[in-house]
# Entry
Amino acid sequence: MSIFENILDILEKKGSISIPSLLDEMNRMSHFKNTNGKQIELSHVKSVISRKKEIFHLKNDIITIDPDKEPILLSFSLGGYPGPWYKIEVDFINGRFVYFEWHLSSFSPRNELPQASGSIEDFKKELYRFKFWKWQNEYRNPGIIMDGVTWSVKLITKENIFESQGIQAFPKSWEKFCKAISKLTGKYIC
# Structure
């Protein structure tokens, strides 16, 4: 687990915490050491926080996850003619997700069972890397589209709502987002 992921874990469990207390907590965790097997240094923690400053809120040496970026609910839909269509909602507060798949075609795979689903906590950590707050409201392919893929994502955070949608055009982090949502649901989505 990276320093970044450990910081997220500790902030999720403890809430606001001073940087020295965060460092103590990280070094107390027996499974986390740097590559030399030594304890993490304050400079390493501060470096990660400064590189990820759009995710963390730092004031008077107290760090929190920026409430504008902390996920509460994610809604995702994807589909195209003749299908399939997917709708997924991830509730981060209650730690559960709902997956819905709809097929127009009679040739759809009927008895295909999902693989084991992934962890909502791991998915939440991945969400921070996608930077939804930087996604455009709308992505469109400039050409004529006859049977393209339509998608939408709505992310509700503690203090904001980020929405993005597209028709046969996608943000840069789309492939990684698709891999993360597929890992979470246990189904190949996109």
Observations:
- The mean pLDDT is 88.
- The first strand starts at residue 17 and ends at 18.
